[in-house]
Amino acid sequence: MEHICDDRNGYGLVTRVFHWTMAALFAWQFVGATLHALADDTAVADFFWGFHRDVGFVLFVTVIARGAWGLINMRRRPPQQGVLRTFARLGHLGLYALMILVPSVALIRQFGSGRPFAPFGIALIEGGGERVEWMTALGSLVHANAGWALLALVFGHAAMVVIHQVIWKDDTLARMAGNVDRRNSELQAAE
């Protein structure tokens, strides 16, 4: 039977669904942002960029939900030792800080613009208010720059997976990919 919660041998189904869903949504966002920056006047850039706010909002909600789920499962997570544990925690803290900051400042900018915000047609912010300059300036200054910093951390995160898998051979990827056979055999061996 599939494990819902995390345990010492791997991440549960809920954590893995959150992780890979967010990976796909971030891939969409970063492809769209890259195309917007490098090939703005193309149909493919317009297509991806046209969903940037909607997908960003879904990501924001998903990050909050995943963060809450992670806190619930914190003591059940697969253990790490020594300095690697410290670096892993710092790296994940940086990822989460930026995953909250980037959409937060975008929402502040949106609210300050006086324009409506209706992801997927669901009205969340009514338009028509006065423009609030500090809010739009903050969003304009921070959103894109923090987004590119987040992309750099995502690449670092992926690079560490390769290091764990290829050099250290410690099955980190299997714990997040859901190698159920390996987890079940480890659980049986521990009993």
TrEMBL record:
GO terms for cellular component: plasma membrane
UniProt cross-references to PANTHER family, sorted A to Z: CYTOCHROME B561, CYTOCHROME B561 HOMOLOG 2
Cofactor names: heme b
GO MF annotations, alphabetized: electron transfer activity; heme binding; metal ion binding
Coiled coil: none
InterPro entries hit by this protein: Cyt_b561_bac/Ni-Hgenase (IPR011577), Cytochrome_b561_oxidase (IPR052168), Di-haem_cyt_TM (IPR016174)
Organism of origin: Rhizobium sullae
Family: Belongs to the cytochrome b561 family.
Subcellular location: Cell membrane
Transmembrane intervals: 17-39, 51-72, 93-111, 148-168
Topology of the protein relative to the lipid bilayer: Multi-pass membrane protein
Keywords for the protein's UniProt record, in alphabetical order: Cell membrane, Electron transport, Heme, Iron, Membrane, Metal-binding, Transmembrane, Transmembrane helix, Transport
Xref: SUPFAM superfamilies: Transmembrane di-heme cytochromes
Protein name (record): Cytochrome b
The Cytochrome b561 bacterial/Ni-hydrogenase domain, residue ranges: 11-177
